[in-house]
Amino acid sequence: MLSGEIDRLVAVDGRMRSDGGSSLRVRRGARWQSSRMRTSGMTPDSGGEGNMAEPEPKRKIPLVPENLLKKRKAYQALKATQAKQALLEKRKHQKGKQIQFKRIETFVRDSRRKHRDEVRLKRMEQKPGQMVLPQGQKLAFVVRIAEIKGVSLRVRRVIEMLRLRKIFSGTFIKLTPASLKMLRTVEPYVAWGHPNLKSVRELILKRGQAKINKKKVPLTDNTLIEEHLGKFDVICLEDLIHEIYSAGQHLREITNFLWPFHLSVARHAARNKVGFLKEIGEPGYRGEGINKLIRQLN
Fold this sequence. Notes:
The structure is a single chain. The protein has 298 residues and is an alpha+beta fold. It has a domain at 107-208 and 259-297: CATH 3.30.1390.20. It is built from eleven helices and seven strands. The protein has helices at residues 2-39, 66-95, 104-126, 153-161, 177-185, 197-207, 222-229, 237-245, 251-257, 273-280, 290-297; strands at residues 139-144, 169-174, 190-193, 209-212, 215-218, 261-262, 284-287. Strand 4 and strand 5 form a beta hairpin. It starts with a helix and ends with a helix. Residues 18-27 have low confidence and may be disordered.
């Protein structure tokens, strides 16, 4: 009886082992089938027939107007040009300015010129002399005809006050004791005299330029003159010429409205500098002879 019971237990255990192995295989197979259905887009309830996922719609690329593309291209070209110019400027500054060598004669000449100016101005202070205004003359035209390198500081300041920063530049001034003293200070470097009406008219018509916002504007429109000088009763070009020639009370305002007159130099001046300097004559007071110099340089 005991042996029969043992055989029955062994048989039951064998069935349990065999059922456990088959259930394990079934569970593994179900897990593999489920993963396959998920990857293929099938569902367990679809009866084995998979429903494929719908493809996503393609995104449309927005079109750019042609004029905008042209503007972008032009802007890119402009930025490229600016970058190139900036690079060239940077290299230029990095390279530095070339060293300019001066001969010892230049320093000697400048030193002597400065010493002569100091001695001359000192003598003027010790013996000022009598400054007499030319009778019946109120207007003078001053032209710078010499270089001012190496001059004394006082002479340079007077040159700047007269606005004669460039050689062969000229300006109108009203003759007063103060202006005569200034002319004596810069006498070795300028020529001055009394212009006639013809010379004044020729200078204004040919070389006249207004100074508006630090820019040169030709005197071609009476509206421009009236706009800036109308408060001085100067409304046209003829009024401007008359006010300058008569050395009126608003001469200073009018001369400040005009740029200094930049006179031209003859073509042969570069080839024959000595001969040209002889033609223009010595610096100093010319009187009526300034009209000849104006026609020569105008």
